[in-house]
Structures are given as structure tokens and as C-alpha cells.
TrEMBL record:
Similarity comment: Belongs to the 4-hydroxybenzoyl-CoA thioesterase family.
NCBIfam families: YbgC/FadM family acyl-CoA thioesterase
Hydrolase as UniProt keyword: yes
Matching PROSITE patterns: 4HBCOA_THIOESTERASE (PS01328)
Superkingdom per UniProt: Bacteria
GO molecular function: fatty acyl-CoA hydrolase activity
Positions of transmembrane segments: none
UniProtKB keywords: Hydrolase
Alphabetized InterPro entries for the sequence: 4-hydroxybenzoyl-CoA_TE (IPR050563), HB-CoA_thioesterase_AS (IPR008272), HotDog_dom_sf (IPR029069), YbgC/YbaW (IPR006684)
Name this polypeptide is given: Acyl-CoA thioester hydrolase, YbgC/YbaW family
Length: 131
């Protein structure tokens, strides 16, 4: 199973260092934006999930940097669901620059958590049914 969504992000000045290169910690935010938009494209928002008792914290984050992104670059962030979610949901990511070169590759694993009990829970049916 592979469900993919792509988004574009323009690198802002505040995301760069003195050399105009994107600070490494900002890539995690780019992955989060892509993941949130992946869910939105599926018809589910983080806000709605949280209002309905489901939290989705990151339990693992991996990033491999290939090339520097710079101020004002237009990046494409591709988020791909790795497998059918269970109590966890896993995404692979590729970040491309404007000419299609790979800037970075990443992976995140998130856990479905019941906001009342703070215990892990299975992926909600409303997500599984859309997949």
C-alpha cells in the first residue's frame, strides 16, 4: 500500500542560518507540514482527531541530508504512507528542490494515543476506511 501526497514549501529567511542554508532542525517541520496535509488530503484533520480523543505524537524521526536547501528555494515534500496503520502510522518522505534533486529523505513513526487514557490505541476506522 502506498498513499502519497506532495506539498510545496518556500524556504523563508527565518529558516536559514547566516549562510542562507536551511537550519537542519527545520526539516522536521517540513515533514510535519507534509504529514498534516497528507491527512487533510485523506479527509481528516489533526484538529478533528484531537477533538475526537486521538493524539498522534511522533515516536521516531529519522533524516538523511543529501544537499543543502537555501533561502527562497521552492521545495517539494513528498509524504508516503509506508504500510497500513495499526497502533502506529509510518511515513517515508523525500524533499526535492526546484530541479528535482533530492535534498533530504526521512521517516517518521507516530503512535495513536487515546487522549483520555493516554494509552496507545488502534488506528481509528475512519482513517482505515479511507485507505
Amino acid at each position: 500500500m502506498e498513499k502519497t501526497n506532495k506539498i510545496n514549501i518556500r524556504v523563508r529567511y527565518s529558516e536559514t542560518d547566516k549562510m542562507g542554508v536551511v537550519y537542519h532542525g527545520n526539516y522536521a517541520q517540513y515533514l510535519e507540514i507534509a504529514r498534516v496535509e497528507w491527512l487533510r488530503a485523506l479527509g481528516v484533520s489533526y484538529r478533528w482527531m484531537e477533538e475526537n480523543g486521538v493524539m498522534l505524537p511522533v515516536v521516531s524521526l529519522q533524516l538523511n541530508y543529501k544537499k543543502s536547501a537555501k533561502y527562497d528555494d521552492l521545495l517539494t515534500v513528498e509524504a508516503r504512507l509506508k504500510k497500513t496503520p495499526t497502533v502506529k502510522i509510518e511515513f517515508d518522505y523525500t524533499i526535492f528542490d526546484e530541479v528535482g534533486d533530492i535534498i533530504a529523505e526521512g521517516n517518521t513513526i507516530l503512535a495513536f494515543i487515546n487522549s483520555e487514557t493516554l494509552r496507545p490505541m488502534r488506528c481509528p476506522d475512519y482513517i482505515l476506511n479511507k485507505l
